[in-house]
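This follows on from our talk about sequence and fold. Can you supply me with one protein entry, sequence and fold together? Could you add the entry underneath, on a fresh line?
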Amino acid sequence: MKHSIFLILFSTLFACNQKTTNGKTLVVDVRTESIWRQGHACIGVNIPLPELEKHKSELLKYDTVIFICETGKSAQQATSYMNAEKEHTTIFKNGISWVNYQCP
């Protein structure tokens, strides 16, 4: 089951890469670090939602950034926040829950 879920994620990331200029995609878990440490996806990085502003310039270096969280609500907030500014070429997407990709 985990292998098929991984293939779905890989296919999603691959599809995102095909639509971008240089294929740089990043998965960002926007939950707090303490919650992230309790369990997290095997891919991506942790940037808590309140810290997005501090990392904005780093995120804009990617062609595509996919936000994930527990339920999708915080990921949607991150996506909306980053897409509010139209002065960039980065594609920000609301991803799926990290739970499907947790580390063994």
The chain is about 35% helix and 15% strand.
